[in-house]
Structures are given as structure tokens and as C-alpha cells.
Amino acid sequence: MKDTLITAKAKKRELIIFAVCLVAAVLVNVYAIMTYETQWSELYSMAGMVVAIAVFFYLVQWIVRLIVKGAVGIYRLVAG
Amino acid sequence: MSQDLPSRKEFLKQLSFITGTGLLAGSVPGVSFADSLNKRNFSANDRVRVGMIGVGSRGRYHTIVMNRIPQAEITSVCDNYPPYYERAKELTDGKADAYWDYRELLEKDQPDAVVIATPPHEHAQMTIDALESGAHVLCEKNMANTVDRTLDMYEAHKKTGNKLLIGMQRRFDIKYLQALKMIEEGFLSEITQIRAWWHRNGDWRRSVPDKDFPDWELDPEYPSLEHKLNWRLYREYSRGLVTELGTHQLDVANWFLDTLPLSVRGTGSINYWEDGREVYDNINLVYSYPKGVNVIYDSLISNKHYSLEEQVMGPEGTLEMQDGKYYYEKPPPAPGILQLISDIEDDLFGVTPLGGDSWNPQRAADTSGNYIVEEYPLPNRAVLQDEAFIESVRQGEELPDAAENGVYASVAVILGHEAMLQDKVIPWPEEKLAKRIDGYRIRPEFKS
Question: Which is it for strands B48-53 and B72-78: parallel, antiparallel or unpaired?
């Protein structure tokens, strides 16, 4: 098995992507609070759920990127 | 729900909130017990000298507890039944002086305080004699078997200035204190009904030994050893389930409602344990309180499925004291984000709600209740009671309304028994209490 090298650039990219997912999850929480007229204290009391949703977003985008990368790879292979 | 629970040490210091509720007879401003006959002042290292009168089942427990309280020293024990007499000596490793007659204990040992755990029909004279001898008294419930003797005990307490605490341990249960706080904060909105019961499955009998005890004579008031040991089953000595069990729960009702019954009605029967007993094995009572509030009480000793409980109900919620839980009538909605996720799931998977609150994506805890006190385990309330009694004797501080609350619970259950016996509505003895309880004011419902 080969060694895997994760570059600093790659780490930085993934961290930024996760940060974006976290912000999106917070915005979802804000939307839910406003829509269902619940308490603003849920901004922090539901922090665990927000992190879980951020992880979910990250996994989804990771799968999408994997699929896109796979599709592009196949296309290049087929195209020659 | 806020839970600023005091530590054990703080709890014992805060004697004023242990029993005081501002009930009718409540505080008589400026009354001091500085003229108590028991004029001993306790220094920080002094121990309260305690005499144990009655070392049967409950008395044994008190003896064990008192042995473990560093500020107490059991200096004398008394019981007039040989096995209990011997047991009392063993429980104190022979260090306490042992007596057959409580009067001899009071005269010779002159304890600072006594714990009286004999059958209820013996409580009144023992308590009065102890108070008049200069001792503070912790007396097991029920105070007495008649209203007049209950009041005689109270009057001796007031006349002598010595403390009188009746053994209703729920007043020292942190769970109950927290529940009272919730009620005062408006959790229920108001109490509209209390339902309490105590069910057991057993004949309530103690075994009677076949053997004789040499050089021992049965007290003349009992026709047989069976009557002495199974006093709970005979009307001359006991009022049965209502006084032996119901006292605790009716006291809670008085406490939480912060008022007293207006009347009581009920019915009782012996419908299972037909073994020569005289007290009912099945009782059902309704106590009517002011503002149309009813307290419904039943006790049964032929089925234990539902065990015991005090349900305190109001428009906004319910408290179940034995389970230690509270329930919202209208549970708060789930957090917005959970409702959003639930709605998205419904849209994606087409889940059809069954309708009603049972489906509602509420927190599961809302339907299974929340604990009144989340800490576990809690200090033993019976131990706290004994500790509080000793501490009040040492500090010279009165336990507010302790004796009065004991009187009210005692009277409530005595009347309940009368209601069943006479098969009629028995009114609360308002005028009698107004004449004999300091500060008791006749309520509007009784004014013509």
C-alpha cells in the first residue's frame, strides 16, 4: 500500500469547506427558529444538532465531489 | 426548571423552610421558647442526650439513625416487650440505660430529648409526660387516636415551651420541597385536585411468638399478646390504614394546598382479610378543601399493583411525588430545527401523522415526564428528619409550625376514620381548633 500525502493546501481547502458547511447549518437553525417561532436560545442549545448537520452537509458535498471527480475521470478516459 | 437544591448542611441550617408554610396557625410573632423548661444551652461540642421510648419496628429504625448522628447520644432506651427491650440494649451496645417503664426513664435519665415510637394510643400521655419533664419530643405519627388527645399533646408543647415534632418525613424530603417550590412558581397554575393512595398486599400482621417470657407480665390494657403486637388491627389501639398510612399523604395535601379540609366523607370495609381484625382493609375517602378542591384518598391491602402515589394536578401540569416526576399538560414544542427535519422527512417519505399530541415530534421526555429532582441518590428523608430534630434542639431554634402541622394531619385522619365509621360527612372541627391552637383563625366558610 502506498503512503498517502495530504498536503497543507488540501487540509486548508477541506477546513474552509467544513467552515462553510457549519455556517450553512447555523443559517438553517436560524431559519428554523424564525419559521417555527421557537426560542433564540436554541442558537446555542441546539449546537450539537447544528454540528451534526454541518457534518451531514460536508459528507454530502464530499460525495458529490467524489461523483463529479469520478465522472470527469471516466469522461477523460473515454474521450481519449 | 430551576434546581437550587441546598447541600445537606445548608438544608439543616435552613430550618425555617423545612416545615413552615404560613398555614393558618402559623407564626405567632414574637413567641420565643426561651422559657423552655429544658434550659440546657448547648455548646458546639455538646451532644443531645436522647431517650428512645418504644423500640419496635419504627423505634428500631430511629435508634439506628440516632446512633449515627454525631450530635446525638442515646443515653436511655425503653420498651416493655422483652424482645424489643433486649434489642434496644443491643442496638446501643449496652451503653444506654434500659427501662421497662418510660416514666422511670424520664425521671432517672432526664434526657434532653426523647423519641416516642410506641403505638398511637400511647402517644398522648407519654408525650405530655416527656414535655412536662423538660424533654423535647419527636413523636411518631399518628399523634393520637382522638382529636382531644391530639390537642392535649399540642397544649403541653405550648405550655412547656419544649419542641414537639411529629414523624412525617415527607416534610424533610428534598423532592417534596422542590415540588413545593415548583407549585409556588406556578408550574401547575393552581392545584385543582390531589389523588393519593397507598396499596399493599399482605395481612399487615406481625407474628406472635408461642413462647412465654419468664418474669414478664403483659400490660393490662391488652387482653393478649396478639393484641399487643398486632395493635394496628384493633380499633381500641389504632384507626387502621387511614392513620397508619394516610397521615403522611394527608399531611402532604395540607402542605401543598396550604390550607385545611372543610369536611370529609368516606367508606371502608373488611372485604378480604376477614381474620378477626377490627380495622378496615379497604378505605375510600374524599376530603373537601376550600375553592372546591378535593383530595381523594384510598388505601387497600389486598393488591399492590399501583403501590403508592400522590398525584397533584392542575390545569398546567401534574406532579407525581412517589415517582418523582412532573408532566406538562401542554408540552413545550420541539426545537425549531427538529421540527424542520421532521417536516422534511414527512415531505420526502410521506409519513402520515396519526394525529394528536402522541405523534407530535415532542421530546420523548415530555410524555414520560421529567424528574422533579435530577440528583440521585437523595439523602434519606427519615434521617434528615431526625437530624433536623437534633439540630433544632442544639440550636434552640423552633421548627416553624411543626407541632401545628402534626395536629392538622392527625385530626384529618381521625376525622376520616369517623366519617367511615358513621357513614356521614364530618365537618372540620374549626371552632375547637380555634379555641385550642394559638393563632388559628376561623375560616370564612365556617362563619355564619
Answer: parallel
B340: closest chain A residue by CA: A32
Name residue, grid cell 407530535: B360
Size of interface A-B (CB pairs under 8 A): 36
Give residue-wise pLDDT tens across range A22-69: 999 999 999 999 999 999 999 999 999 999 999 999 999 999 999 999
- Is B315 part of the contact surface with chain A (CB cutoff 8 Å)? no
Q: Are residues B12 and B150 in the same domain?
A: yes
Gap from B364 CA to chain A (nearest CA, Å): 16
> Could you list the residue range(s) of the whole structural domain that residue B269 is in?
174-329
The answer on B179 and B308 residing in a single domain is: yes
Q: Are strands B282-288 and B308-314 parallel, antiparallel or unpaired?
A: unpaired
Strand, coil or helix: what is B396? coil
Minimal C-alpha gap between B360 and chain A (Å): 14
Whole-number Å distance between alpha carbons of B357 and B336: 17
What pLDDT is attached to residue A7?
Answer: 92
Asked if A33 and B333 come within 8 Å (Cβ–Cβ), the reply is: no
- State whether residue A46 sits within 8 Å of chain B by CB: yes
Query: How far is residue B269's CA from residue B340's CA, in Å, rounded to a whole number?
Result: 57
- Tally of domains within chain B: 3
**B338 contact residues in A (CB cutoff 8 A):** 46, 49
Query: What residues in chain B have per-residue pLDDT under 50?
Result: 1-2, 15-38, 357, 359, 362-366
Among residues B195, B121, B129, B189, the alpha carbon closest in space to that of B162 is found at B129
Residues B270 and B403 reside in one and the same domain: no
Q: What is the pLDDT of residue B61?
A: 96
pLDDT digits (tens, 9 = 90+) for B35-76: 344 456 777 678 999 999 999 999 999 999 999 999 999 999
Place of cell 411525588: B321
Question: Does B422 map to a domain?
Answer: no
Q: State the nearest Cα–Cα gap between A5 and chain B, in angstroms.
A: 38
Chain A residues near residue B340 by CB distance under 8 angstroms = 28, 31-32, 35-36
The number of residues in chain B equals 448
Put simply, whether B337 touches A (Cβ < 8 Å) is yes
Same domain, B144 and B74: yes
Residue numbers in B near A34 (CB within 8 A) = 336
Beta carbons within 8 Å of A66's beta carbon, 6+ residues apart? none
Cis, peptide link before residue B45, omega less than 30° from 0: no
pLDDT of residue B119: 95
Contact assessment for residue B312 and residue B183, using Cβ atoms and an 8 Å cutoff: yes
Contact (CB<8Å) A38/B340 = no
Measured between alpha carbons, how far is residue B432 from residues B106, B143, B193, B417, B441 in Å? 31, 17, 27, 18, 11
User: Tell me, what's the ipTM?
Assistant: 0.84
